[in-house]
Write a structure and sequence with these properties.
Alpha-D-Glucose-1,6-Bisphosphate, Chain A, domain 3; six-stranded mixed sheet; alpha/beta; seven-stranded mixed sheet; about 35% helix
């Protein structure tokens, strides 16, 4: 019996191709997924990113699904949110082959039930892992069928129905696709002439796209497709300043996350984008609920409340966000990592839809993006700081002991350790699910206060 705990993560399956993940194993994952969802669905939709290994792994997964008598719809090259669109609009469970922002040697599988409902450790992934480890039972009935279907145009059209850009002022937008799937979806969403290499003036919207790294290349020759790392925004920031753009957008490898850069080349914090989009969604549905994870800025629940909404705090991770959205009927949710979730998009995350909201908000007024977003950025933040430690639990206990007894301290353990020190700021310390790391996020009124609190916590964490 094989042990798959190294590659079956909290939210997906991910590993090094050829070492941890191959066609035979993926075929078994496909069969196990089919067994999981067979009582509820006769078909599965499958998409894949631009990595060299993705088409063959997607094909192997399809073989596994059809071996259990279920049918398969292959949508080919797709962003993760395009796969979610297919799952939602077709009413089918889905599988997306991508390792997101991980290096080229990795690949993985993101799974969902019909309507883009997440499959994580607590919602089927552990069951799939057990089935594969113990050996997938053979199915004696008729194999399923495989058909191909292109949903890109439908995906783009659906997004354009959710945010109307037709009446905004003309905007120049630099887009860094990082050689990932944004190079596939951006031209379709913005209705660009395919002969222009992914850029140029939109044929139907008042938008000009300046493309960067739109060539689909799973070796990521220009930079990692991980905009969460500031080093991977440098090229975009320089290009925005060079061409005098109104805004810059950076997508990760599977294009489900979007990072925003203002006209000065400065990164707009994802929490500010969350607050901006929340205000727009609340304008459509006053009093609605907005989900934010516990690492987003305190400005997010403040702004949601000020605009008549109901902020709800949750753990980090898409399965928790989506579950809480379903439970509360929330209209929108945002994470510090630039994942944005929309009730109108089957509660799934789509960076593209968040980007359209930012462009609409910018284009509906005459000011700059930096001026617009300044109202949503109220505090200074450290960003995520990782520390390698031998004993995560021991270091978290030490930090709790050091801060928990302070008169001003409010402590909770919804996800890791969160300590709110009032005017001195707050921090969250979480253990990585997959590495011997502790992740620290600090927020306070200004940079000096952030540094002071960060230094104090790290002195304990790193001993």
């Amino acid at each position: 019996m094989q042990d798959l705990s190294a590659i079956v993560k909290a939210y997906d399956i991910r590993g090094v191709v050829g070492e941890q993940l191959d066609a035979e194993l993926v075929r078994d994952f496909g069969a196990a997924f089919a067994l999981l969802i067979k009582p509820d669905s006769p078909s599965v939709v499958i998409g894949h990113d631009m990595r060299d290994s993705s088409p063959s792994l997607a094909s192997a997964f399809a073989e596994g699904v059809t071996s259990q008598g279920l049918d398969v719809v292959l949508i080919g090259l797709a962003s993760t949110d395009e796969l979610y669109f297919a799952s939602g609009s077709l009413g089918m469970p889905g599988a997306m082959f991508t390792a997101s922002h991980n290096p080229a040697k990795y690949n993985g599988i993101k799974l969902c039930r019909a309507g883009a409902a997440p499959v994580g450790q607590d919602s089927g992934l552990a069951e799939i892992k057990d089935t594969v480890e113990q050996g997938v039972p053979e199915f004696a009935g008729q194999r399923g069928t495989v058909v191909e279907r292109d949903v890109l145009a439908d995906y783009a059209a659906h997004l354009r129905t959710l945010v109307d850009l037709s009446g905004i002022r003309q905007l120049k937008v630099v887009v860094d696709a990082g050689n990932g799937m944004g190079g596939h979806t951006v031209p379709a969403v913005f209705d660009l002439d395919p002969s222009r290499g992914g850029g140029g003036l939109s044929r139907s919207l008042p938008v000009e796209i300046v493309p960067m790294y739109f060539e689909l290349d799973g070796t990521f020759p220009n930079h990692e497709a991980n905009p969460l790392d500031p080093a991977n925004l440098v090229d975009l920031q320089a290009k925005v300043r060079e061409v005098g753009a109104d805004v810059g957008l950076a997508f990760d490898g599977d294009a489900d996350r979007c990072f925003v850069v203002d006209e000065n080349g400065d990164a707009v914090p994802p929490s500010a984008v969350t607050a901006l989009v929340a205000v727009r969604e609340l304008a459509k549905e006053p009093g609605g609920t907005v989900i934010h994870n516990l690492i987003t800025s305190k400005a997010v629940p403040e702004i949601v409340s000020e605009n008549g909404g109901q902020p709800v705090r949750t753990r980090v991770g898409h399965s928790f966000i989506k579950a809480k959205m379903a439970e509360t009927g929330a209209i929108f949710g945002g994470e510090h990592s630039a994942h944005y979730y929309f009730r109108d998009f089957w509660r799934a995350d789509t960076g593209m839809l968040a980007a359209l909201h930012v462009l609409a908000a910018l284009g509906e007024q005459d000011g700059t993006l930096s001026a617009l977003t300044s109202a949503y950025s109220r505090y200074a933040a450290s960003g995520e700081i990782n520390s390698t430690v031998a004993d995560q639990a021991d270091r978290v206990r030490a930090v709790r002991q050091a801060f928990g007894g302070r008169e001003s301290a409010s402590v909770d353990e919804l996800d890791g350790l969160t300590v709110d020190l009032g005017e001195q700021g707050w921090f969250n310390l979480r253990a990585s699910n997959t590495e011997p790391l502790l992740r620290l996020n600090v927020e306070a009124v200004d940079e000096a206060a952030v540094k002071a609190l960060t230094d104090e916590v790290l002195a304990i964490v790193r001993g």
